[in-house]
User: Which sequence fits this backbone?
């Protein structure tokens, strides 16, 4: 019973983390890239755009290789929380930095962290979901991770029309970091409650 309570809190935390990343940043990174390329690359915005897109994609590939090749990062709540927080922090730095090489590095780090966050949280969900409800739980996770991407159109796009894309992406990244911290507290409180009852 205690293990089931802790597992339920962990599952909810993983679903929340996936939803936060999807809702606050989600698909907006690719949509805002031309503006960032123009601001960071100046007269050579076309090349800057290509490099920024490559950096974001390369980060995901690098993250996959690191996760598989090293096997040092275990699928658990701390790893999911830390990787999601790194994704939010690197997105925040990318949004406010005016230095092109640093922006490229932040996209690489963000790509690695985003892939790690999604892979780890999905693995935890698959491992902890009760067999009788596994399909339903994974479906809810998938809806959170993919279905909430439309939210980034509001958090970055609509807000960007009011305050500018750099600020809207920065504010969304801050919200992602704060939400990640809240989800971590929720998971640990659930675990502690299960251990003390």
Assistant:
């Amino acid at each position: 019973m205690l293990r089931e309570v802790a597992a339920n809190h962990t599952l909810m935390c993983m679903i929340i983390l996936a939803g936060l990343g999807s809702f606050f940043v989600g698909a907006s990174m690719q949509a805002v890239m031309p503006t960032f390329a123009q601001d960071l690359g100046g007269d050579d915005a076309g090349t800057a755009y290509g490099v920024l897109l490559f950096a974001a994609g390369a980060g995901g590939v690098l993250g996959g290789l690191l996760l598989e090749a090293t096997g040092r990062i275990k699928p658990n709540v701390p790893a999911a929380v830390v990787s999601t927080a790194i994704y939010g922090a690197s997105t925040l730095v990318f949004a406010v930095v005016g230095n092109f090489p640093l922006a490229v590095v932040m996209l690489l780090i963000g790509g690695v962290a985003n892939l790690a966050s999604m892979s780890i949280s999905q693995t935890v969900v698959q491992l902890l979901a009760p067999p009788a409800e596994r399909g339903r739980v994974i479906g809810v996770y998938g809806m959170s991770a993919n279905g909430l991407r439309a939210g980034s159109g509001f958090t970055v796009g609509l807000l960007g029309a009011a305050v500018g894309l750099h600020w809207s992406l920065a504010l969304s990244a801050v919200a992602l970091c704060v939400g990640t911290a809240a989800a971590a507290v929720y998971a640990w409180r659930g675990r502690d409650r299960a251990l003390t009852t």
Summary: The chain has eight helices and no strands. The chain has a mean pLDDT of 86. Residues 75 and 120 are 5 Å apart (CA to CA). The longest helix spans residues 165-196.
